[in-house]
Design brief:
By secondary structure, this protein is an all-alpha fold. The protein is 70% helix and 0% strand. The protein has a domain at 80-135.
């Protein structure tokens, strides 16, 4: 039973800040990010945006989520820009590079998308050849 139900609340739900007063700021941020993800998957883009606004600005996760919303709304240039910004913040993970490439593909920039994919593939091959350091 959640807090709202146990205190007589009619909704049967609790807000992230009400679920546990002892949540650390990092845990509260994770709860808000999870709420945004749930709303995104349910198709509630307005609710997802509202949940993202509660996250600290400048986080790679929030910027990536903003890119996902823009992509779902068909705003591929905006999505590519947000994925690119998130990639810079997160150290260029291949997943975000592929997201940029998909946005370019959706804009019919096939050469640009292929270039991004080839760069990521080349980097993965180089990194596979580098011996891993064992502590």
């Amino acid at each position: 039973m959640n807090r709202a139900t146990s205190t007589g609340g009619a909704t049967g739900r609790c807000h992230a800040s009400q679920c546990s007063p002892s949540l650390s700021p990092l845990a509260l941020q994770a709860v808000r990010h999870l709420q945004a993800s749930i709303k995104y998957e349910a198709g509630d883009l307005r609710g997802c945006r509202a949940a993202l606004e509660a996250l600290p600005p400048g986080s790679a996760a929030a910027t990536t989520a903003g890119g996902c919303i823009a992509y779902k709304e068909g705003q591929y240039a905006e999505a590519a820009a947000q994925f690119g910004e998130a990639a810079q913040m997160a150290g260029y993970p291949p997943e975000l590079a592929y997201a940029v490439a998909v946005c370019q593909y959706q804009q019919r920039d096939y050469a640009g998308g292929a270039t991004v994919v080839l760069r990521v593939d080349s980097l993965k091959r180089v990194l596979a050849c580098v011996p891993r350091m064992v502590p």
